[in-house]
Amino acid sequence: MPRDMDDIAYVSDQAARARRLFSAVVMAALDDAIKDEEKHGTGITGIASWARSRHGRTILSNAGIDPDERTVALMIDYVTRGARGEKAA
User: Fold this and answer.
1) Residue 11 and residue 2 in contact, taking contact as beta carbons nearer than 8 Å
2) The pTM is what?
3) The predicted structure's pLDDT at residue 84
4) Predicted confidence band at 11 (pLDDT cuts at 50, 70, 90)?
5) Which helix (H) or strand (E) holds 29?
6) CB-based contacts of 41, cutoff 8 Å, min separation 6
7) Sign of CA dihedral 33, 61, 56, 1
8) pLDDT at 6
């Protein structure tokens, strides 16, 4: 249990770092799905099944993303458009 403001700030900073780490995992999964969609045509089904799986829901939750069907639909739309992060930069 944090005792003073420095401890509270440290815990909050660690939580933010963890969320950013899990967000990077989600973005990597989306980039991989886009690559799979371009090469084999299996990216949409792959990202949908990953996001609906227990592991995927846990990763999404830890990233601060609500793991519901709306999120899955938006991820599918993102993969369909093929807007990879490295192309946008």
Assistant:
1) yes
2) 0.81
3) 63
4) confident
5) helix 5-39
6) none
7) positive
8) 75
Which amino acid is residue 47, in one-letter code? I
Task: Produce one character per residue of 61-79: b if its CB has 16 or more CB atoms within 10 Å, e if not.
Answer: ebbebebeeebbeebbeeb
C-alpha count within 13 angstroms, C-beta hemisphere, residue 8: 3
AA identity, residue 77: D
What string of DSSP letters covers 34-83? HHHHHHTS-HHHHHHHHHHSHHHHHHHHHTT---SHHHHHHHHHHHHHT-
- C-beta of residue 47 within 8 angstroms of C-beta of residue 71: no
- The candidate with the shortest Cα–Cα distance to 67, out of 45, 50, 85, is 50
What type of residue sits at position 9? A
Say how far apart CA 41 and CA 33 lie, in whole Å. Answer: 9
Sign of CA dihedral 13, 19, 23, 29: positive
d(CA 40, CA 87): 19
